[in-house]
Amino acid sequence: MATSGSYDFSLTGTEIITEALELLGVVGVGNPMSSEDQATCLRTLEMMIKAWQAEGIAMWTTREASLFFSYRGVSYSIGPTGDHCSTAGYKTEVATAAASGVSTITVDSDDDITDGDYIGIELDDGTVQWTTVNGTPSSDVVTLTASLTDTVAINNHVYNYTSKIQRPLEIIEVRRISSSETDVPLEIISRDEYMRLSDKDSYGAVNQVYYDPLLTNGKMYVWPTPNDVKEYLKFSCRIPIEDFDSASNDPDFPKEWLMALSWNLAVYVAPKFGKSIDGLFLTNAGTLKQAVKDFDHEDTSIYIRRK
What we know:
single chain, Thrombin, subunit H, 3 domains, five-stranded antiparallel β-sheet
């Protein structure tokens, strides 16, 4: 028996919609889908997926992110137009002291630094100056778009990243990365607990965070406020499922979800085509969705502690 040896089967948005309409008997051989039918079904598919996000699906959208502190910053915008937070953030250190007013720095390693990156340099006054990388680094020398506004000592931290994170729907866990590169787990607290803190401007090593997802950018509040910019946060978060910008896009789903997407889309669009759904169809659609939801979880043990 000769198998294909491939593992790349997938469906586009158009093919998911076609499958759904075939299940309803709306399209078939000799009865192609119209552009109007595709457009209305794509809109419903998008809304269905966004609604499913509220159920907590999509373990595959979990990302590891880095948030770089500002000196004594109380809160940080987390998102595409927010503060300095990325799913691909890097840290190196200054190899040669630099004077105020210069536009180049020498770092321990430029391996992860590229032209156009956001770059933050720890200044000797204890703050971080952010600018961008101007040109491809060479021999660990990095050219900056803006000149340094203060002196920079050897071993001061340098942070960089290419693009900002999408707005997280949920923060799962948070760690503070100390200046010695140790991970310190932090407590995620509720809005009520954060608001009850009497002195939100007190500073020290961050040990608690509160996250408000909001809309374009989420907002992360930290306490105490950081007074050491050699420290930063790393956290695991769940970001939104990608949109279908066109029906030709592939879904931002594992392949195991394709059948559930098609059958459940058929349920949602049936009224648009004057089709009724019987109980068995509804049961099948629900069963397919539940099966992949049950599959979409982390394999860990659960411990119950009695107080």
